[in-house]
Each structure stands twice: as C-alpha cells, then as structure tokens.
Amino acid sequence: MNDWNNNYENGFSTAIQAENEATLQRYVAAVMRRVYGKMTLGLLLTALTSYLVVTTPAVMSFLFSSMATIWILFALELGLVIYLSARIEKLSTGTATALFYAYSALNGVALAPIFLIYTGASIAMTFALTAGTFGLMTIGGYITNKDLSKFGSILFMGLLGLILCIVINLFMKSAMMDMIISCAGVLIFVGLTAWDTQAIKRMCAAADPSMVGKVATMGALNLYLDFINLFIYLLRIFGNRD
Q1: How many whole angstroms separate alpha carbon 218 and alpha carbon 82?
Q2: What whole-number percentage of the chain has pLDDT above 70?
C-alpha cells in the first residue's frame, strides 16, 4: 500500500512539474513573439525611412553635406541606445518602445547612403542572406540546450577588438584590413545572434509579468542591432557598387 501511495505521489508530482514546464514554455514563447514582432517593425521602419530619405534629394543633401551632420547623427544614435539600455527599468513600456522605434528611424537615416553606393540587386540579395543567416542562428540559440553564456565574454572581447581595428584602419585605409574586419564582423555577429537569443529567452522566463513589455523592447533592440550589423558586414563583402 505504501509503495502504491509513493508511486502515486511521485507520478502526481512529476505531472505537476511537466505542466508547470509546459506553462513556462508557452509564456516564454509568447514573450519571444513580442520580441521578434518589435524587432521586425523596427527593421521595416528603418527600411522605410531609408527609402524616404534617399528618394528626397534635398534631405540627402542637407544630411550628408558635411561631416558635422554625420557625427551629430552618430552621436544621437549612440545616445539613444545608451539611454534606453541604462534607463529601461525606470521608463514606461510605451516610452521604451517609442525610443526603440525612434532609434530604428534614425538608423534608417544613417543607412540611406548605402542605396547610392551599392546596387539595389546586391542590397536585396544581401538582405535575404542576412535574414537567412540570422534566422538559423536565432533558432539555434532558442532551441539549443547548450549553455552559450561562456561565449559571451569571448564575443564581447572580439567586438572590442573589432572596434579597435576599425579605428586603426581609418588611418591605414587598407583594403585587405577592411575585408578582414568585415569577415570578423560577420563571425562575431553570427555568434552574438545565438548568444543574445538564449540570453533573451532566459530573461523572458525570469521576467515579472509587469516587465514583459520592457524585456520585449530590450530583446528587440539587441536582436535588431545584431541583424543590422550582420547586414552591413555582409554587404561590405558581397555588395556590388554602382
């Protein structure tokens, strides 16, 4: 009789654990859909803004007629990312989301010149390649049971090294170094896509329901940055210039 009771209780406990796990997985999947939804809207806003800017010669002339304007644009982008990342817990969900979309639009302005540098066909081909690569890596990061957290510090150090090489090559102006930087950038952001996806998944699982909107916004920002940087480095490798 005791054995029967023990088996029953163990089975009941296992069933509860399985149901709790299934509920958590559904919750995480729902939050991740919000992450990808916001990221996709951010990318669409970037693309639309770039198109509007590049098809308006007066705006293009005003924005890119001097280095001062370009540096101001860069400073605004960097400031928005830093502010959003540092203040996310104190901002309302609506404000955080609005700042993310503002950054997406601003980035669209900054990326507009690529339509004058590269052919439309090569931009479309590179975008498709980026989407495919990003999709595979983010799916891999989501479903893998392997802990990717140990790769985070390696990727971060690689990113710092990449930035340093970019600064150095501003003075060297080496075509070979530029290609090496582009290839390294692709590898780093491919890895970051998987790493960020797993990290975001864990944040979603641990997030309080009241913080879900903010977690979705920060997750969308991180994956958006991975996608955009991957696209830029792939374009530098495979893009055909006009």
Answers
A1: 12
A2: 91
**How far is the CA of 224 from the CAs of 120, 158, 220, in angstroms?**
22, 19, 6
The pLDDT tens digits of the residues spanning 141-152 come to: 999 989 898 888
Provide the whole-model pTM.
0.89
* Side-chain-side CA neighbours of residue 169 (13 Å): 15
Helix residue ranges, H only, 88-174: 93-111, 114-117, 120-143, 150-172
Torsion angles phi and psi, residue 118, rounded to 5: -110, 155
Residue 57 has pLDDT above 80, yes or no: yes
Tokens encoding 52:
């509007």
Q: Residue 141's closest CA among 18, 36, 229, 235? A: 36
| Per-residue tokens: 201 | 């998944």
Question: Look-up: residue for tokens 């806003």?
Answer: 45
* Local structure of residue 144 (DSSP, 8 states): -
Compute φ and ψ for 241, nearest 5 degrees.
-85, 145
Give the pLDDT confidence score for residue 12 in this predicted structure: 47
Tokens linked to 214: 């903010």
Neighbouring residues of 2: CB distance < 8 A, sequence distance ≥ 6: none
C-alpha closest to that of 218 among 235, 201, 239, 237: 201
* DSSP code for 208: -
Cβ proximity of 43 and 229 under 8 Å: no
